[in-house]
Amino acid sequence: MDEDLTPFREEDIFYQYTMPSPPAPEEVDPANVTFDFPEEAVRDLPSHLVGYEAQPIMESIIDHVAITFGIDIISIGSTVLKMILIVIATYIVARMVTRAFKFKIPEMLGGKKTGVDSETELTFRLLISRLLVATVYLIGFIIFLSQIPGLSNVAVTLLAGAGVAAIAIGFAAQDSLSNVISGIFLALFHPFRVGDKIDFKGDYGYIEDLTLRHTTIQTWDGRRIFVPNSIMSNQEIVNWTIIDPIIVWTVDVRISFDADIDKAREIMLEAAMRHPLVLKDREIAVRMTDLMEFGVNLRLLFEIPNRGVAFATHCEIREAIKKRFDKEGIEIPYPYRNLIFHGPVGSDICPSCGVQKEGENPGNVS
What we know:
By secondary structure, the chain is of the alpha+beta class. Among the domains are: 75-160; 191-239, SH3 type barrels; 247-328, Alpha-Beta Plaits. 45% of the residues lie in helices and 14% in strands. The strands form two sheets. The protein has a five-stranded antiparallel beta sheet with strand order 4-3-2-1-5. Strands 6-8-7 form a three-stranded antiparallel beta sheet, with helices on one face. A hairpin with a 3-residue loop joins strand 2 (203-210) and strand 3. Helix 10 (261-274) crosses helix 11. The model is unreliable at 48-54 and 360-366 (pLDDT under 50).
């Protein structure tokens, strides 16, 4: 029995394993360091604080919302950010196109000959820039739609079925497309240009702007008339500056039948020659155009630099002629009539004035 007893030594229990030497600080990888917590302590801590499931609080919130409500916050946020960037980029590109056609291209041309006059060149630049801006916004709108998950197929369909869509839109917006097409034709054939002086339905003004939809006319009294391009392309318009701004203007004056026509003609020619805006190197003439009921009509013809000064020149010359006619005794007639009354024979009514003769009583009959 004593032989079975083996001597008990303390070092056999506590020192039978050799402890590994601690690693140097530079050899420690924090990513591989783990801590083994007791199971009871781990059970009482939130899962995002311990173990391999540890993560930031924001990520845990995002995961909770995604699991609970089925909403992917990260995906939605990135989509909204892309849409905002698309809107900003579209606006910036459109502004760059507008500024390029308004400022940069004229600077690049620098007065060089382009084969067209300045008004036509300005009209083309305005219309082309607006076409390009509309194209930029259309492309930006399609890209914007493609970022929405539910509408991405719609954007692809718009591009794939552009022909069918164009026909459908054409029927739905005939008037608008008619104005756009008319605007393009007006720019190509340019019956008028931006800055031209015109007469439109009895109103004198100038073309202030030409857009894809309408034409803006500013009248002589400051009014602005917005006319759809389809009407402008079909309306009769007098363009005073399409080729040569110099125009012939007239002043009509009526004199009595017994007035001296030669003297009146001399006064009218002198009034025109003295006016500073009348072109002296062009023909100035007076013609008798009509024998009217109350007198003779004389027409003064002269040329002026442009239509814009016609009204003021007309008024000033007419006033000068009137003052000279009054001074020279040339009568400007006015309408008058002689009324003659005829009474019956033996009547007491005066045949010239229609008044009963004095001292006679029409009631007494002898």
